[in-house]
Each structure stands twice: as C-alpha cells, then as structure tokens.
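A sample follows:
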Amino acid sequence: MHDTDIKRIIDKVTAQVKSEKALLSCDSITLALAKRIAARIEEKAKDMGVNAVVSICSSGARPVLCECMDDSYIASYDVAFNKAFTSVSLKMSTIKLKSLSQPHGPLYGIQHTNEGKIVIFGGGEPLILGDKIIGGLGVSGGSEEQDTALAAFGASCVEEEASKCL
C-alpha cells in the first residue's frame, strides 16, 4: 500500500466520522430522512390495510413532508399534521397526552389551545435522534390503535434510517 492510499483511507474515515457527528448533533430532521421514515411507515400501513397520511414536521413544527397514500381520507391530512405539530411542540406522544388531558387531568382542555391544533388521541410521536427532538410525526387514516402503532414504528426507525442517510 502506498502513502497516498493510506492518506485517502484516513481522509475517507475522517469525513465519515465528521458526517456522523454532524448528523447526531443536527437540530432538525432533513427531507431525506423524513422520506425514508415515511416510506417505512407507508409499507407497514399497506401491510395493515391502512390508507394513511404521514406528516413530518421540523423541530420548529414547520412542515417537512406530508404524503397521502392512495384513497386516504381527506380529513386525515390536517389530523396527521396536527398530530406531528402536537408531538413536537409538547415533546411527547399524542397517546401519552390523551391520558393527561382527560377531565381532572393536569392538561385538561389543552386541545382548545394553539388554534385547536392540539390532538389528544394516538398517532403522533416526537422524532428523536441521539438525545434531541429533531421533529414530529403524525399518522392518520386508521383506527387510533393503528395510527398509534404506525407512529411508534416510524419513531423507532429514526436512528436506523439516519445512519443510512450518511
């Protein structure tokens, strides 16, 4: 092996390590990562027989991606986005928020704030990479149980899919 070959290998490994550190320290989800997560969710939704809408927003609750599977409900578009908004803005899943927002609960009535964009039923998850919330995910189109399962699945794919975006 020549010195130039060794230098090239070292440079390549150094660049990869820097890229991984940058990814793990990113403050918000990228479109590339959002697309990968949405594709995984849509494949699982298809297997479940659900025509879902998948919405992903940034850490600042701005839309990054919204995909509507064929024959999904029109109403699911707003619901999915609002689930993504809720999960990132309150830093918790919407299914967890459901229990906190019941009568006599500590967050009772919260769904009436934020211009009615707060969703208090399952299907929203914060997206976490490393120890940072990088976005919010909302899934709508199935039953609450199905939407909750799909959103939890999508959230569980973040680390794996992020490593593929390097």
